[in-house]
From TrEMBL, chain A:
The keyword Transmembrane helix applies. Residues 115-307 form the ABC transmembrane type-1 domain. One of its GO terms (biological process) is transmembrane transport. It is a multi-pass membrane protein. This is Carbohydrate ABC transporter membrane protein 2 (CUT1 family). Belongs to the binding-protein-dependent transport system permease family.
UniProtKB/TrEMBL annotation, chain B:
Pfam families: BPD_transp_1. This is Carbohydrate ABC transporter membrane protein 1 (CUT1 family). Keywords: Cell membrane, Membrane, Transmembrane, Transmembrane helix, Transport. GO terms for cellular component: plasma membrane. Belongs to the binding-protein-dependent transport system permease family.
């Protein structure tokens, strides 16, 4: 996905004096005659392009802005004022309340419990699913055995099966082995449902590594695990990061599995958030609700803003799976 | 590891043994969960299971009951409306945004970050934000009315005939960034010479997009279509967060029907039948695609 180095149109050269220097190195081969003619046409186009992009950007940013603004207002101000108006008096009370004393049913210890549950779910699930899937991918790309591709095909096709179809059999299996309702059960579930995409990701990445390395290590007497730990893992750190981003955001954002496979005391943050906001009793405190919503979205957002390009790569990889 | 290497050339069996052992979780998942679980659910959808799964076959009874339940019909109708609009709009919006982003603009990364950030958020967060924005007393409707347009009506979440469009707005907000990214990647894969050639021939830009670039991006469109489509069938969290299926049953969707019948109404048979219908829906989307991509279409590349 490289942005640079394509000379699609000669537009840059004509937009502004400053961009002529930017486009300098690239113009060499493409545009011969440079004159006034394209200028007017292009500037109208530039206005349309940027105008549309700014309007779209405003639409995408609006909910985030409203969330933040609402969470900083007091309830009286929300009832009287405009949803888009910035807060007259900034208060952090809703945030404190959302974190430590918002109620779900009888429990009034806020979202903090859900947050720590989500941490307890996300960290081991991410580690286990990546560990298993990377070994799968490694076995599939370097140690092919008869029938391996058949399993892999089932796995990839399985990625498209709606979760609802497989949920109940998993409930039964987990109940049989005594893990239904526990954190371990949920970790297993996340490992299972993360497996198709992660295996695909690792398989394709490992298959792209030079085969000579693998052969040389074989000649030097390294075995399955030796090559995996000493060559494959150190050489594939970027893909491990991509997988981590994919899993952390995916598992943190999960709702269905959390609801189905855990008991209320282990409910992840998303489930607890939904219970807080959509609870029918009591007066609706929109500011607390919005603060709680931001808190729940904060972790994946942070991952997103920090990881940038790698996130895009992760979803592009995820996209292959669907 | 050195021990088995020292035994000369390791035999086929031992060499593959580690790989086989390491792949056991994958095999179990593929065979027991994905294959076994699916078959199990389909088989039990023909039984009269209520609270517990029982192998008492009743033929197509569950399906007959399913298709005569108003709630299921509403769910299917919603899914169809939501599905068609979300396919069309996310493809169009995603492509237009990608085309704009591809004009060598400045701040491309900033725009990309803005368009894509909702995708990092969960459906629960998305649903709750839009529930608040579409709140008739405090949200967009009241803000516009306060600006002087007193007759302005915009309360999709409280109007059962248009509630599904309220959900659609939220879904588009969350998902179009991804489509934009995929399309942008596709556009970047188009050969520069194509653009030069069409410029030389004096073809206007929009025509080039419509008749040259889009046909060339067919694989990208198909992949995106499959991704969006399989996401649509799964839509669940968004509805739960935004409307809980309300008002009444106006915004119910199949995935929610399955969950409610399996885990709340204690009517497993209905849940299995409904989830089998979901499976069939997905199969209708996936099988032709898989056939085109990996089957007969291979020769053309």
């Amino acid at each position: 996905m490289s942005d640079r180095g394509h000379l699609k149109k000669t537009n840059l050269a004509a937009t502004a004096p400053a961009s002529i220097t930017t486009a300098g190195p690239m113009t060499g081969l493409a545009d011969g005659p440079r004159g006034a003619k394209p200028r007017r046409m292009l500037s109208t186009r530039t206005v349309i392009v940027y105008g549309t992009l700014f309007v779209a950007a405003a639409y995408y940013l609006l909910p985030l802005y409203v969330m933040i603004v609402t969470s900083l207002k007091g309830m009286p101000e929300i009832r009287l004022g405009n949803i888009f108006a910035p807060p007259l008096e900034v208060t952090f009370e809703p945030w404190v309340k959302a974190w430590s004393s918002a109620c779900t049913g009888l429990n009034c210890d806020g979202l903090s419990r859900g947050f720590w549950n989500s941490v307890l779910i996300t960290v081991p699930s991410t580690v286990v699913s990546i560990a298993i899937a990377s070994v799968n991918g490694y076995a599939l790309s370097n140690w092919r055995f008869k029938g391996a591709d058949a399993f892999f095909t089932i796995l990839v096709v399985g990625a498209f099966i709606p979760y609802q179809v497989m949920i109940y059999p998993i409930v039964i299996i987990l109940r049989e082995i005594g893990l239904y309702g526990s954190l371990y059960g949920l970790i297993i579930v996340h490992t299972i449902f993360g497996m198709p995409i992660l295996t695909l990701l690792f398989r394709n990445y490992f298959a792209g590594l030079p085969e000579e390395l693998f052969k040389a290590a074989r000649v030097d007497g390294a075995g399955f695990w030796g090559i995996y730990f000493k060559i494959m893992v150190p050489m594939s750190l970027p893909i491990f990061v991509v997988a981590m981003i994919l899993q952390v955001t995916g598992i943190w954002n999960d709702f269905l599995m959390g609801v189905v496979f855990t008991r209320p005391e282990y409910y992840p943050m998303t489930v607890q958030l939904n219970n807080i906001v959509n609870s029918v009793q009591g007066v609706k405190e929109y500011n607390v609700n919005m603060a709680a919503t931001i808190l729940t979205g904060a972790v994946p957002l942070l991952v997103y803003f920090v990881s940038g390009r790698l996130f895009v790569r992760g979803i592009a990889a995820g996209a292959v799976k669907g | 590891m050195s021990s088995n290497a020292r035994a000369g050339r390791p035999s086929r069996l031992t060499r593959n043994l580690s790989a086989k052992i390491a792949s056991v979780p994958m095999m179990l998942t593929a065979v027991v969960i994905f294959l076994g679980g699916t078959v199990w659910t389909v088989v039990y959808s023909f039984t009269s299971s209520k609270l517990l799964p029982r192998l008492k076959f009743v033929g197509l009874d569950q399906y007959e009951r399913l298709w005569s339940t108003p709630r299921w019909l509403v769910s299917i109708e919603n899914l169809a409306i939501y599905g068609i609009f979300s396919l069309v709009f996310s493809l169009v919006i995603g492509f237009v945004l990608a085309a704009l982003m591809d004009q060598k603009i400045r701040f491309e990364n900033t725009f990309r970050t803005i368009f894509l950030y909702p995708f990092a958020l969960s459906f629960i967060v998305t649903g709750l934000v839009w529930q608040w924005l579409l709140n008739p007393e405090h949200g967009i409707q009241s803000a516009v009315r306060a600006m002087g347009w007193a007759g302005f009506d915009f309360d999709p979440l409280y109007n059962s005939s248009i509630v599904i469009y309220g959900i659609l707005i939220a879904a588009l907000w969350q998902g179009t960034g991804l489509v934009m990214c995929l399309m942008l990647a596709g556009l970047r894969g188009i050969d520069e010479d194509i653009w030069k050639a069409s410029r030389v021939d004096g073809i206007p830009m929009w025509k080039t997009y419509l008749f040259v670039v889009i046909p060339m991006m067919r694989p990208v469109f198909v992949t995106t279509l499959v991704i969006i489509a399989s996401g649509i069938v799964r839509v669940y969290d968004l509805v739960v967060a935004q409307t809980s299926g309300g008002p009444g049953i106006a915004s119910e969707v199949p995935a929610k029907y399955v969950y409610d019948y399996m885990f709340q109404a204690q009517n497993l048979g209905q849940g299995f039948a409904a989830s089998t219908m979901m499976l069939i829906t997905v199969a209708i989307i996936i099988v032709p695609w898989a056939y085109l991509e990996f089957g007969g279409g291979r020769k053309r590349v």
